[in-house]
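Comment thread on ticket #2218

A.B. wrote:
> Attaching the input chain for the structure job we discussed in standup.
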Amino acid sequence: MHLVHGDGIDPSARLSIYRNNVVSRLSDVLTATYPVVCKLVDRRFFLYAADTYIRQNLPREACLVEYGEGFPSFLAEFSPSAKLEYLPDVARLEWNIHRVFRAERIPPISIASLAGLGGDPAQIRLSISRSTAFVASPYAIDQIWIAHQAVDIRSDLQLRSTAAHLQINERDGLGIVDLSPATWEFRSRLANGETLGAALAMARTISSDFDPVPALASLFNDGLVVGLTADFPHSKS
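C.D. wrote:
> Ran it. Output below, let me know if you need it in another format.
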């Protein structure tokens, strides 16, 4: 039984047209999600990379807003762009910008919510807003991103040689903040679901004088905490 009716067009040609249309549509999705990466490598090379990625990673869902999450990891293994070592991290930054803009908005809670919890504070887990993301890189990827937002922006930009420890927020507009390494470790680990005690311990391995009191207060003051739970062991009778 024929599954494709030609209607005057050879079935294989019809399938080829459909396939090319799908690749073209997905290329547009990747270009819209990764505009700075596209600028860094030029459009022709980007479309070549995108075509290779698409043919290896067709979408599994009809909604294309989630498509392209694996593109940064693909770039890290894509040999034609291997000399651009910072490129996958710029792509990770762009993906997370894309993600925070479409994340569900949940109202933050106040630090007073901690007062009602008993037990060991180290066992508390904070729920960090989904409209917040954390990306670290040995390259100044935030400065690279800023430099490519418009032809007339930061033309005198001097890229620093230090690593980037970025917090990306969408609260009444995009915010990208370069945190200290210890603060980034503390916040990113909490965002990944680790307990307050575990996140604090890792932050202190980076900076022995890391102070948890202002670090915790700033999380709430910045409106990043949307919930909390406590993994306190049940008392034995």
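A.B. wrote:
> Thanks. Noting for the ticket: The mean pLDDT is 86.
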